[in-house]
Amino acid sequence: MRFALALVLMTATARAVQAASIGLVLAVDVSESVSTERYLLQHDGIARAFETPKLTDAIATAPGGIEVLVLEWSDPDKIAVTVDWSSVADRKSAAAFAAVVRGTTRSSYGLTAIGAAMLAGGAALDRIPEPAANKIIDVSGDGMANFGPAPAPVRDQLVAQGITINGLAILTEEPWLADYYRANVIGGPAGFCLVAENMDSFAEAMLKKLVQEIAGEPAHLAEGHALR
Question: Could you tell me if 113 and 75 are in contact, meaning their C-beta atoms sit under 8 angstroms apart?
Fold first, then answer.
């Protein structure tokens, strides 16, 4: 009886540790306003973040590491998963993930369907291979939604499911985009928005956002302060 009880407790503890990992969807804007050069800056910025000790050290402290997926979005029917769910727990697995990111190519051009991208992120989290107590969708983009479902109702739907939505507003096209993201995109008790004034600062902003999400370290640039 005691052995059976101990086995149950050990199993429950293992599941708790496993469930403490983070499920993270990186939803990247590839709409028409994102030039080839800007796309490459985003693409490289994500890879560089996962090669940076500050982030890999943060990931190493997260119980069970993280599960991460990259999703590119423009039109609702052009949303594509370019890097499927990957387990990242240390520098070696982070470097492997970065290498896979670097090996992908742009999936589409199109309009700016933020709401559809968020729905796709929620669907991806539904099929995460390992349970995750913390589920996050990162939306990075340079414009307001102009196609597909409105972001705000989608945001509310996802937040009701326990998903946090964070934003990275890139101000190359619309200087007011951070306010739009705060009002319509980000959600959840811990949701926040970082700002990059241009694509050159995307990599730094992405790194700060990921560290904020995984380690809970103050990003200093949250809620609208800009990287230049």
Answer: yes
